[in-house]
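Notes from the 1:1 (GR / supervisor)

We went over the backlog. Supervisor wanted to see one worked example end to end before approving the batch request, so GR pasted a single chain during the call. The sequence is below; no edits were made to it. Supervisor asked that the structure be written out right there so they could see what the output format looks like.
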Amino acid sequence: MESAKYSILVVDDEELMRYLVVSYLSKLGHSCLTAVDGADALDKIKKNKIDAVITDIRLPNMDGMTLTQEISRQYPGLPIMIMTAFDEEYSEGTVISAGAREFLRKPFTLDEFAVRLNKMIDDSETIKRMEKEKKADEDLQDLMKELERILKNS
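Structure output shown during the call:
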């Protein structure tokens, strides 16, 4: 990951897990916000610039799967990592199809967490860069067509 640091929303109803994840992310230089459930998370995303979301799958009020689907609908492209200790209920394919970019089973090592987070954010940054380049290319093509039209008419 480049020297740029990110604003990451950590969503977990367990205070200890939120604390551990936020402490680790802070040591990596990221700024963090926390939420205790899906509704709280959506409110935080609405009011703050968030670069990535890390959420537990089991949450009160709105679970992580529903949250992921809602974020993907409202904020397309926002990278989401889902964590769970309930691996028999959820598969990687299930959470990816809901809109998550990464799926991490608890317990996990800090190295695994960091690698997956960095990959998720790097992939997101690459996609954003490619979209900007595509838009710039389309704009340039539009300008070239306009120039050709002007030259033909003069």
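Supervisor's comment: DSSP finds five helices and five strands in the chain.
Batch request approved.
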